[in-house]
Amino acid sequence: MLRLPTLPSRLRCAVPSHHNPHAALRRRVDSRNQARRIPHYCVEKLFNEGKSEADVIAARPLKDLDAKWAASDDAAVAFTKMVYNSFKRS
Q: How is residue 17 annotated by DSSP?
């Protein structure tokens, strides 16, 4: 299983209650942060190892997340390509 860096305490969500209306918003922000960081982290590791785009796609570094985030297999591959190419631009 992939080991990811932990989020800072200010981004971890609190237990929602009627006394803390911002907890739900925090949980949503935390979820979006994870959705952005996890693919970045997984693909960056392969990019830094010198893997080509085809190697990264064949490795399927986001396979665990594809069922949750991708509508189809083609969408999952397209997303992986997009993340990989973002490193080429920077």
A: B
Cα separation, 21 vs 1, whole angstroms: 34
Q: Where are the domains of the chain?
A: 22-89
The count of other CB atoms within 10 Å of the CB of residue 42 is 22
A 10 A CB-CB count for 43 gives 25
- Determine the Cα angle at 12 with ends 84 and 82, to 5°: 10
Task: Give SS3 for 23.
Answer: helix
Residue whose tokens read 């986001």? 62
User: Per-residue confidence of the chain (90 residues) as pLDDT tens digits?
Assistant: 555 555 555 545 445 555 566 666 666 666 666 667 788 888 999 999 999 999 999 999 888 888 777 788 898 899 899 999 998 876
Q: Is the pTM of this model over 0.70?
A: no
